[in-house]
Design brief:
The chain is an alpha+beta fold. It has a single domain (about 10-145), classed as Hotdog Thioesterase (Thiol Ester Dehydrase, Chain A). The chain is built from two helices and eight strands; from the N terminus they run αββββαββββ. The two termini are about 25 Å apart.
Length: about 140
């Protein structure tokens, strides 16, 4: 079993942990990992595909949240020396976006697995901007067979 030191900010390592590729990678740091949770960050840049009028769109924020969930799966596989698996959002049970970040701001998303069975997970996420909660979700995700 191989492990990496946190925070993981090397874009080449992050790309190994995600099924997405540039320009669609929406995390730039993996801050924490354990069996049931993960914390990831994204600093919003002007060149980000989801930035409009200086703000990260709600769609971009949701993509960042989904990729935070994918990082958990990717890092778990990495430690077991398994290839990255693609996944899907099966359902968003609840999503509340209170604010979107601007260029230069960094968001931090924490994901916690509530329930997991046969490749399907129910997760809860909280996204913060400078310690202020700006988004929360509950979603069901599933791995591609």
């Amino acid at each position: 079993m191989k492990e990496l030191r946190f925070p993981i900010t090397d874009p080449f390592i992050l790309e190994e942990l995600l099924p997405q590729r540039e320009p669609m990678i929406m995390v730039d740091a993996l801050m924490y990992y354990d069996k049931k949770s993960v914390i990831a960050e994204l600093t919003v840049t002007e060149g980000n595909s989801f930035v409009k009028d200086g703000f990260l769109s709600e769609t971009g924020l949701l993509e960042h949240i989904a990729q935070t969930v994918a990082l958990h799966t990717g890092y778990t596989g990495y430690m077991q020396e398994n290839p990255v698996k693609e996944g899907y959002i099966g359902a968003i049970k609840q999503a509340e976006i209170l604010k979107t970040p601007t260029i230069g701001q960094t968001v931090e998303t924490e994901m916690e697995i509530i329930h997991e069975a046969i490749g399907i997970s129910m997760v809860k996420t909280t996204t913060k901007l400078q310690h202020e909660t700006i988004a929360t979700t509950e979603m069901k995700t599933m791995l591609k067979a």
